[in-house]
Amino acid sequence: MIGRLRGILISKQPPWLLVEVGGVGYELEAPMSTIYDLPATGKEVTLLTHYAVKEDSVALYGFFHEAERASFRNLLKVSGIGAKTALAVLSGVSTQDFARLVQAGDVVALTKIPGIGKKTAERIIVELRDRVDGLGVGVASLAATSGAPLDPAAEATVALQQLGYKPAEVSRLVQKVAEPGDNAETIIRKALRAALGS
User: Fold this and answer.
1) Domains in the chain, start-ordered, CATH in brackets?
2) Distances 132 to 29, 49, 68, 92, 114 between C-alpha atoms, Å
């Protein structure tokens, strides 16, 4: 079981990260809430992890805050929710906002997250209402840019599509929110807010 990694951040191409620990490169998937908080590539980073083993694959997920990992693990316990959907939830709302939506029974807001239909939202509320108390604070300040090869708008577009948004919707969102000087993380954050109507 791998519970934590500390090493050098080699690359970040949302939702994928590569962290080198003792000469070994670990590939992880992470929600946008974690990616916002990462340092620039080449810097040291410490991530909490969730190690998942299936019959045909092994996967490692990284989180900057314990509240994110706890929310991810809680979501995986909900019937019909897999890792991709759990990451989309954490990318769409902060852990604090997610807890608030669940406690309020806000089905409509939850269904605005890619991969969450009405029935799934209702299951999340029923199954997690008693588990989300005190789950951490919201997203912290944005990290420095990584110098990724794609331009910020293109990088944001790829990341949003990987989170489950349709290409046409992504193009509309990115064009709507992107401003000169924005980095990819800023564009992604503004696009997610626009998609969720907040």
Assistant:
1) 4-63 (2.40.50.140), 152-192 (1.10.8.10)
2) 23, 19, 11, 17, 21
